[in-house]
Structures are given as C-alpha cells and as structure tokens.
Amino acid sequence: MRQQIVAQTGTGSSAFIPMNLDTSPFNVGFGVIVTGTVNYTVQHTFDPIWQNGGPSGTGVFPHPTVASLAVNQDGNYAFPVSGIRVTVNSGSGTATMTVIQAGIA
C-alpha cells in the first residue's frame, strides 16, 4: 500500500483510511504529527467503511496506546481492522496521520 495521509484540523475526525483485509500478515504502521495545540486519538473500526456513510459511535474503537495524546507518536496494528482514522478531541491545531500497510505495492 502506498502511504496514505489524512489530517484533521480542530475538533472532529478525519476520513477513514481503508485497509486491505486480504493481506497476510496484516501489519500496518502509522505516525501522527502534531502542529499547534491538539489532543488526538487514533481510532479503528471493524465495520464496513463504505456503507451508510461509514461507522460511527459504538463501531469505532480507540487505539490501545495512541489515545488522548498531544505529541507526535507512532504505532501499529498487527490484527485486521477495516479502517483507521485520527480524531482531534480538543484544540485548534492539526493532527496529520500517515499510514503504511505492508505487503501491498
């Protein structure tokens, strides 16, 4: 997979980046760069992201270690998820997330 980049400025969520569920091993790495002042959380879903405007509420889960942060951070997913996004919980700055999934050119 080519690098995919999403950004969120101010409170709210970026679009979900879709993952390829047919890749084994799954292996996804990501990094979030903060500009300005923000508190952000990386989130994932197991729901189809293309149906009915995408998942929301109970179908979205926070990353276990990259949650409620205000600094640059990286992380990964070793288990399959259908989509990943970044949510700015507070602040007026920008959280920019770059995602790379192994095994796809």
List the helices and strands and how they pair.
Elements: E1 4-9, E2 12-13, E3 17-18, E4 28-35, E5 38-45, E6 60-62, E7 73-77, E8 83-91, E9 94-101
Antiparallel strand pairs: 1-9, 2-8, 3-8, 4-7, 4-9, 5-6, 5-8
Description:
The chain has 105 residues and is mostly beta strands. The chain has one domain: Sandwich (Jelly Rolls), CATH 2.60.120. The chain is built from no helices and nine strands. The protein has strands at residues 4-9, 12-13, 17-18, 28-35, 38-45, 60-62, 73-77, 83-91, 94-101. It starts with a strand and ends with a strand.
SS summary, helix count: 0
- How does the major sheet shape up? 5 strands, antiparallel
Q: SSE order in H/E notation?
A: EEEEEEEEE
Number of β-strand runs: 9
How would the global form be characterised? Answer: globular
Mean pLDDT: 92
> How many structural domains are formed by the residues?
1
Beta content: over 45%
Query: What is the end-to-end distance?
Result: 5 Å
Briefly note the structural class of the backbone: mainly beta
Low-confidence stretches: none
Percent range for helical residues?
A: under 10%
